[in-house]
From TrEMBL:
Its main location: nucleus. GO terms for biological process: nucleosome organization; transcription elongation-coupled chromatin remodeling. InterPro entries: HHH_9 (IPR041692), NA-bd_OB-fold (IPR012340), RuvA_2-like (IPR010994), S1_domain (IPR003029), Spt6-like_S1 (IPR049540), Spt6_death-like (IPR042066), Spt6_HHH (IPR032706), TF_Spt6 (IPR017072). It comes from Syntrichia caninervis. This is SPT protein. The gene is SPT. PROSITE patterns: S1. The lineage of its organism: Eukaryota, Viridiplantae, Streptophyta, Embryophyta, Bryophyta.
Length: 307
């Protein structure tokens, strides 16, 4: 397909071992011959790439039959239609032979003499034949150790489903997932009952407009400021002041957070807060309140000295 359609060549530069220049040269060579029968011919016959580039890229270049193709022009190596590297073809053929032989013994069938040459074809046409092969057991009998065991597992998966798309199908993120992606927060860092730091951006008559460290907008209503009843927000708070708050509600659909800094709410143990808290954490909200009070007194002292 890449030989026929120019637009498919655009992704060739991202194949391991290639790049913009090598991919362009590769394309030019292929367009001259117009047909590739095997992966090996890319290096041995067509000379589209040198030996080193071929070694790096061979497992990612797919050679397969397309549509009605004359028998003499069909690809001769079935494994070229998988991600299995040419250096591992013999290992793949041995595994296919073992699968066919095991399936024949299990079904009390006689194994044909042409199993070595036809094993790969039969396994590809009947992928379930490999289900009976225990890779760990086969690796031990074939004296394959170390990383070879993982290689055999990958070979088995490619023989069953060559060039299958292993990535998950795209699905639209939910509203909650979008919220956490946009804010950089998570269920463990921002939740109802959790303690957060907020900076006051605007002091209004009935509420404080704040910004959390993650950039989310938060509001503290007048009744959630103090246990002392009616207070004048402009007398107690000023813009730019940092406030320690507890999260009352996270409005994910509006990207807003309702907060409270009442002393009674700050001392109250939240079930969610306890759930997300480290087991070694010792509750000492007095420290937070003292720090908040120190900040307030320091700012008042600064204003008094300025005047």
């Amino acid at each position: 397909l890449a030989i026929i359609h120019d637009w498919l060549f655009e992704t060739l530069q991202f194949v391991a071992g290639l790049g913009p220049l090598k991919a362009c040269e590769f394309r030019t060579n292929l367009q001259v011959v117009k047909r590739v029968l095997t992966r090996d011919s890319l290096y041995s016959t067509i000379r589209a790439v040198n030996e080193k580039v071929f070694t790096n890229s061979a497992g990612f270049i797919r050679v397969r039959e397309i549509g009605e193709t004359p028998s003499d022009l069909r690809p001769t190596e079935l494994l070229d239609n998988t991600r299995i590297h040419p250096e591992l073809y013999q290992m793949a053929k041995n595994l296919a032979e073992a699968a066919i032989e095991k399936e024949g013994m299990r079904n009390n069938e006689e194994v044909d003499d042409d199993v070595p040459s036809m094993a790969v074809d039969r396994v590809i046409k009947n992928p379930n034949a490999l289900d009976s092969v225990d890779i760990a057991e086969y690796a031990q009998s074939a004296h394959v150790e170390g990383r070879g065991l993982k290689t055999l597992e990958l070979i088995k998966s490619e023989l069953q489903r060559g060039f299958q798309e292993w990535r998950r199908s795209y699905s639209e993120p939910s509203q909650e997932e979008c919220f956490y992606l946009m804010t950089g927060e998570s269920k463990e860092t921002l939740f109802e009952g959790g303690i957060v730091q907020a900076t006051i951006r605007r002091v209004q008559e009935h509420q404080l407009m704040c910004v959390l460290e993650c950039g989310l907008l938060g509001f503290i209503q007048k009744e959630d400021v103090s246990d002392d009843g009616d207070v004048e927000l402009k007398d107690k708070f000023s813009e730019g002041t940092s406030v320690t708050c507890r999260v009352k509600e996270v409005k994910k659909d509006k990207y807003l957070v309702d907060l409270t800094c009442k002393e009674s709410d700050m001392r109250e143990e939240s079930r969610d807060d306890t759930q997300h808290r480290d087991k070694r954490f010792k509750s000492d909200i007095t420290f937070l309140l003292n720090e908040q009070e120190k900040t307030r007194l320091k700012k008042e002292d600064y204003i008094r000295k300025t005047f």
